[in-house]
Design a protein that fits this description.
The complex is a heterotrimer.
Chain A: H1 3-9, H2 17-36, H3 43-68, H4 76-92, H5 97-121, H6 126-144, E1 149-150, H7 154-161, E2 164-166, E3 169-171, H8 173-191, H9 193-203, H10 205-210, H11 215-241, E4 243-244, H12 252-262, H13 274-294, H14 300-324
Antiparallel strand pairs in A: 1-4, 2-3
Helix pairs in contact in A: 2-13, 3-8, 3-9, 3-11, 3-12, 3-13, 4-5, 4-6, 4-11, 5-6, 5-11, 7-11, 8-9, 9-11, 12-13, 12-14, 13-14
Chain B: H1 2-6, H2 10-26, E1 34-36, E2 39-41, H3 43-66, H4 74-91, H5 98-125, H6 130-149, E3 153-155, H7 159-166, E4 168-169, E5 172-173, H8 174-192, H9 195-204, H10 206-211, H11 216-241, E6 244-246, H12 254-264, H13 276-296, H14 302-318, H15 320-327
Antiparallel strand pairs in B: 1-2, 3-6, 4-5
Helix pairs in contact in B: 2-13, 3-8, 3-11, 3-12, 3-13, 4-5, 4-6, 4-11, 5-6, 5-11, 7-11, 12-13, 12-14
Chain C: E1 4-13, E2 16-26, E3 31-35, H1 42-49, E4 57-62, E5 65-67, H2 72-78, E6 80-83, H3 95-100, H4 113-126, H5 142-156, E7 160-164, H6 172-187, E8 191-195, H7 199-205, E9 208-213, E10 216-221, H8 228-236, H9 247-250, H10 254-259, E11 262-271, E12 275-283, E13 287-291, H11 298-306, E14 313-318, E15 321-323, H12 328-333, E16 336-339, H13 343-347, H14 354-366, H15 374-388, H16 404-416, E17 422-426, H17 434-449, E18 453-457, H18 461-467, E19 470-475, E20 478-484, H19 491-500
Parallel strand pairs in C: 3-8, 3-9, 6-7, 7-8, 13-18, 13-19, 16-17, 17-18
Antiparallel strand pairs in C: 1-2, 1-4, 4-5, 9-10, 11-12, 11-14, 14-15, 19-20
Helix pairs in contact in C: 14-16, 15-16
């Protein structure tokens, strides 16, 4: 068979189709924006999507792990807000940055681990446990303070204002952090046993148990990761806003879930790629940018469009599932 | 006496009584009710009035949870419907025209029903998980509400409209009467007809119910519509009380309160048997709790935290796995049923897997 | 010297003793078939041997050593692995990955995919399978998936391989290929435990046979010394001594039954991948038995006739009128009733009371707006509780606390209240004590004498023969024969009909 024939005979593995669909969606949206609005195609505009959504990307990575096991984490937004509040409060009390940073991360991870343990050992549905976790975290926020807390710590302001430049363009350190997290997650999911176990548990918990896989460790692990990512996302957000507030990130869980689902990961678990989540975040960011450029539409349209997109993708997943039966 | 304590509503009633008595200790005039201009006034009346929207939403939530589902969108629906009513009234030439106000109210209620039907279609029709289906409306709904209000808080000056939330009839606040009425209608509807039992059957085992000829999908659809209806009416109560609509903050976090009320009242989150009476008690408890926290001087910001902890504890207690692991340390003896029961030949050896 | 042996195994679940003093041994280099009908304990024995369940009594030995498996992981590490009927691998992951899931080579942190792919290819080649190991497992046929599962199993443990119903979904060619592989593995010294209900295959591949019935060991045999008919008799058992003979009643009105008009006429009714198009007629006052072994399609027939599944071929007529049954509601409105096989999962609503469970179908048919008055409910429930002798007789107990036999009677009561014209019973006497069994059988007879049409499904041929006017025989998802239950028909004839696949004598 000649190379040409091989090329023509090559059929796209079906499992890549959802991610490619998301990629196509992103390309289409970006093109529409570039055509309609002047200045949209400027590279810096593209990089700004990353700068503005670095924290969402990190949170969505954590959410990907959870959804891959067939679960869900509704507490991410609340943990993000809690992290900003804790950071603000501790820094205002004079705690040094190098103590605060690891500490809030540890707390986020611990919250996640706690939820994961309750979900696994007491066999309570993830949505209830993480919903309670969400209100617990928000409640803690308001207990710390009902007002927002400005952050004036040196490390924070430095990180907030630093620009990493190359050529005419720049990005923020948060973007670098987000990229590192994405790469680490990509590696974990593809090259570690834990990562493969995540897919297995999502593919079928019963089968995973019968195959002798460590289901408990995997499940608690993904919720811990989600907690860590939420905390990290909170830190990135606090760099961006230089303040902590209990009203931040309300509805972030939906954005994260939307990014994951639009990225092609099945809500039922077991199938999906992290690259899809990244594309999903890009799609959400592009929507936001288009609306900003449009100028006349209020920002609330973003919520509605995201809701509609999420709905569409979920219905597609359902239809595909019904047809497969 | 023992039989009395076994009644399923015993604990909620006790909790409520204790809370009320506790308030009495701090505020000696707590139970006082005055009559002014033919209207009743007092702390107890305030609690009732504030609890009315919550009780209504919780009633709708009870039925949804009884079928094994959940409705997270009630807060958003509440805001949307209140916003629509206020928008319509604000556009009227004469905001006090009763006809126009009635039309606005009708439209708002209709919208609530439509949104409930939307949720019902996604869950019963397409089989989307209730948590996801209602989550979408929860967040997209806030966007919708903001759209209706154009990002502002719409204020209206309409005496007829204000009556709905702040008026009195027969001495009692109108919202209280509406809530009592709706709850009574719900109780009659579910307990006088076979609907209650059918809902409990669907929640208990949907497959078995379908095979017994129950129209499970239709019932599931209807409870979401009902939940939407309740949310709409509650939204009207709230927005008319303050004569304005806030798309962002109206009904914020009310879903947690509703779930908590349902759970406190004895309905399990997994579905099946439900108790509307218990739910109403639960709503009263939550409202009294909020008042108590205020009176005692605990910062009100901690209420959210407190509620979350209570929900967690109640859910844990309701979970059979939790009870098994924590309370039943000894292995229960295995019973072999039927007349052919035989004693085990040896003492059991080895561990259970 | 047995490589795996079990002695006096007893395993109990709430309300039932699944295994009662069972002995078992597996020798190296042999294929050992484990047989028994539904509820005989085959699956439970497998799960006990592989660490999924613990036991109340008995011991398990690997070779000489006493072992105790607390999890499938431990059993696997000790050298015992299982391939389950549902394959239990991950369809969303690749073939190669499935083989090595949980034990990927490569030091801890980095999985070496190239090595995995190469090894997977090697292992499959040993089983004469040459496929693209990078494609998701779900894209391959069940036969291939099974071979992949076997490859995983033998890579994990070279000692014992347990196959639980491996051929249920395979066609002739795939079965032949599987058996070649098994013979090869056998020669390499592997001990293979093979659970199945396909008797022909047992004789083709097994070196020894163990039969279980009702949780007890019936015996261990060599295939050469046990003809098929004898084998079935041992699996199904004859309990005539314990039951009252109602044979006289069976011979009753065969002729009269034939004069009655048909209640149900199914013509070419079928559902793709579920049951092949069949014709079936049931007359008023007639009991039609559906006989066939596990997996032959009996429940599928019942579900089609009840609207629980939708037919995509053929037509259905009830009392002369053509109907399309799309949901159980449609069927119930047309006077058809169905007691499903799986009482707990599909029949009972455990947290509702006995009373509520019993009136459920009747209430559903009246709709939500016409509730039965409390008085009427209690009256009806009392009547049927007495009639069927449901114990305990308190209608306000939660249904989940009743024993198996009483739960079955409760389901029967639920449907009898609706006074259906056709009653479909799927394994109504399975897992029930002898006394209740006899009661239910007598009830079926009296119902049909009273004019009700009954479709009776059971794996116990004795029971089917005792009760039916006519018997429809199923095999491998196809209706292969129909017998009128007169004097010449006995268990042997039914078995032969099953075995021959329809070639009538």
């Amino acid at each position: 068979m000649t190379t040409a024939e091989q090329f023509l005979r090559y059929r796209l593995p079906r499992r890549y189709i959802p991610v490619l669909a998301t990629g196509a969606l992103f390309a289409v949206m970006y093109s529409v924006g570039a055509i309609r609005y002047k200045g949209f195609s400027d590279t810096q505009v593209f990089l700004n999507i990353f700068i503005d959504n670095a924290f969402l990307l990190v949170v969505a990575v954590g959410m990907t792990f959870v959804i891959l096991t067939g679960g869900i984490d509704l507490s991410v937004g609340a943990v993000v807000a809690l992290t900003t509040m804790m950071s603000g409060s501790l820094l205002a009390h004079g705690w040094p940055a190098f103590v605060v940073l690891p500490m809030v991360l540890a707390i986020g991870g611990a919250l996640g681990a706690g939820m994961g343990a309750i979900i696994h050992y007491f066999e309570i549905q993830p949505f209830i446990v993480t919903l309670a976790g969400m209100f617990l975290a928000r409640g803690l926020c308001y207990t710390i303070s009902t007002d927002s807390i400005p952050i004036t710590d040196g490390t924070w302001t430095r990180l907030a204002q630093t620009r990493i430049r190359f050529g005419n363009y720049h990005i923020s350190p948060s973007v670098v952090v987000a990229v590192v997290v994405v790469l680490a997650a990509l590696y974990a999911l593809a090259y570690t046993r834990f990562g493969r176990n995540v897919y297995a548990v999502g593919g079928g918990e019963q089968s995973a148990l019968l195959m002798g896989l460590p289901v408990a460790r995997t499940r608690i692990g993904v919720y811990t990761i989600s907690g860590l990512c939420s905390a990290l996302g909170g830190l990135l957000l606090s760099f961006y806003t230089l303040s902590g507030s209990g009203t931040y990130a309300v509805g972030l869980e939906l954005d994260a879930i939307a990014a994951v689902v639009i990225g092609g990961t099945l809500l039922t678990g077991g199938s999906g790629y992290l690259a899809g989540t990244v594309l999903g975040v890009l799609v959400l960011g592009t929507i936001q940018t288009i609306i900003t450029f449009q100028g006349t539409l209020s920002a609330w349209w973003t919520r509605i469009v995201i809701g509609v997109l999420l709905l569409l993708f979920i219905l597609l997943q359902r239809v595909a599932a019904i047809r497969r039966q | 006496m023992i039989a009395f304590t076994r009644h399923k509503l015993f604990w909620p009633v006790l909790a409520l009584v204790l809370l009320l008595l506790g308030n009495l200790v701090f505020t000696p005039g707590f139970f006082n009710i005055k009559v002014l201009d033919g209207h009743l006034y007092g702390s107890l009346i305030d609690i009732l009035r504030s609890a009315a929207p919550l009780a209504l939403i919780s009633a709708g939530m009870t039925l949804v949870i009884a079928t094994g589902g959940i409705d997270l969108s009630v807060g958003s629906v509440l805001a949307i419907c209140g916003a629509l009513a206020c928008l319509r009234i604000s556009k009227q030439a004469d905001q006090g025209a009763v006809g126009g106000v009635l039309l606005a109210i009708l439209l708002a209620v209709a919208l609530g029903v439509v949104l409930g039907a939307w949720n019902g279609m996604l869950t019963a029709g397409f089989g989307v998980q209730p948590i996801i289906a209602t989550l979408i409306l929860l967040v997209a709904g806030r966007g919708l509400a903001q759209l209706i209000t154009s990002g502002q808080i719409i204020t209206v000056r309409s005496p007829p409209y204000r009556k709905v939330g702040a008026g009195y009839f027969l001495g009692l606040p109108i919202p209280v009467l509406i809530a009592i009425g709706m709850v009574l209608i719900t109780v009659l509807l579910t307990r006088r007809s076979a609907l209650g039992m059918l809902i409990e059957a669907v929640g208990g085992n949907a497959t078995a119910s379908t095979l017994a000829g129950v129209r499970a999908r239709r019932i599931t659809f209807m409870v979401y519509v009902f939940s939407g209806l309740c949310a709409a009416i509650a939204g009207l109560m709230i927005s008319s009380n303050v004569s304005s609509a806030d798309g962002n903050n109206a009904g914020l976090f009310i879903e947690l309160d509703a779930i908590l009320a349902v759970v406190l009242g004895g309905t399990a989150l997994s579905g099946g048997r439900f108790s509307l009476g218990g739910t109403v008690l639960g709503a009263l408890i939550i409202q009294t709790l909020t008042t108590t926290i205020y009176t005692v001087g605990i910062p009100p910001e901690t209420t959210l935290l407190f509620k979350a902890i209570v929900v967690t504890i109640v859910c844990l207690i309701q979970s059979p796995a939790f009870r098994a692991k924590v309370f039943q340390r000894r292995r229960r003896p295995v019973v072999v049923a039927g007349p052919a029961a035989v004693e085990p030949e040896k003492a059991p050896t080895g561990d259970r897997a | 010297m047995a490589v795996l042996s079990a002695h006096a195994i007893t395993k109990e679940f709430p309300g039932v003793r699944a295994l009662d003093g069972v002995d078992f041994r597996l020798l190296p280099g042999e294929v050992h078939a484990l047989l028994g009908e539904n509820g005989a304990g085959k699956s439970t024995l497998i799960k006990v041997l592989t660490g999924v369940y613990g036991v109340e009594a008995g011991e398990i030995r690997l070779g000489d050593a006493l072992v105790h498996f607390a999890s499938p992981e431990q059993a696997q590490r000790a050298g015992v692995s299982t391939v389950y009927q549902e394959v239990n691998l991950m369809p969303n992951l690749s073939v190669a990955e499935n083989i090595f899931l949980g034990r990927q080579p490569g030091s801890g942190a980095r999985i070496r995919w190239s090595r995995i792919r190469a090894r997977a290819h090697e292992l499959l080649a040993r089983l004469r399978l040459n496929i693209d190991v990078t494609r998701p497992l779900g894209g391959y046929s069940l036969a291939v998936q099974q071979l992949v599962a076997i490859a995983r199993a033998i890579d994990i443990s070279a000692q014992v391989l347990i196959l639980d119903e491996p051929t249920s979904s395979l066609d002739q060619g795939e079965v032949a290929r599987l058996f070649e592989v098994l013979r090869q593995l056998k020669q390499e010294g592997l001990a293979i435990l093979f659970v199945t209900h396909f008797l022909g295959q047992v004789y083709e591949i097994a070196d020894r046979i163990t039969v279980l019935r009702n949780g007890k060991l019936v015996g261990e045999y060599l295939p050469a010394q046990l003809p098929e008919v004898e084998l079935v008799r041992k699996m199904i058992g004859t309990e005539l001594a314990a039951l009252e003979r109602v044979d006289e009643q069976t011979q009753r009105g065969l002729a009269a039954a034939e004069q009655q008009s048909p209640v149900l006429v199914a013509s070419g009714l079928g559902r793709t991948r579920s049951i092949e198009p069949f014709d079936l007629t049931v007359r008023h006052g007639e009991v039609v038995g559906l006989a066939g072994l596990l997996g032959s399609g009996r429940t599928e027939v019942a579900r089609l006739l009840f609207g629980a599944d939708r037919a995509d071929h053929g037509t259905l007529e009830l009392d002369g009128t053509s109907v399309a049954l799309r949901t159980p509601r449609d069927a119930a409105d047309n006077g058809i009733a169905f007691c499903p096989e799986n009482r707990r999962a599909e029949g009972l609503i455990p947290e509702l009371t006995v009373r509520e469970n019993i009136i459920l179908a009747l209430q559903a048919s009246r709709g939500w707006s016409r509730p039965l008055s409390r008085r009427r409910q209690e009256e009806l429930v009392r009547r049927y509780v007495e009639l069927l002798r449901i114990t305990p007789a308190d209608p306000d107990l939660t249904a989940g606390t009743l024993s198996g036999g009483n739960q079955q009677k409760l389901l029967l009561a639920r449907w009898l209240i609706t006074e259906p014209r056709l009653l479909i019973l799927d394994e109504p006497t399975r897992g029930i004590d002898i006394g209740a069994k006899a009661e239910i059988q007598r009830l079926v007879v009296s119902l049909s004498d009273g004019g009700m049409a009954v479709l009776f499904i059971s794996a116990e041929l004795e029971e089917v023969l005792r009760l039916s006017h006519r018997i429809a025989v199923l095999r491998d998802r196809k209706l292969v024969g129909e017998l009128t239950n007169d004097e010449r028909v006995d268990v042997d004839l039914v078995l032969q009909t099953i075995a021959s696949g329809g070639a009538t004598p």
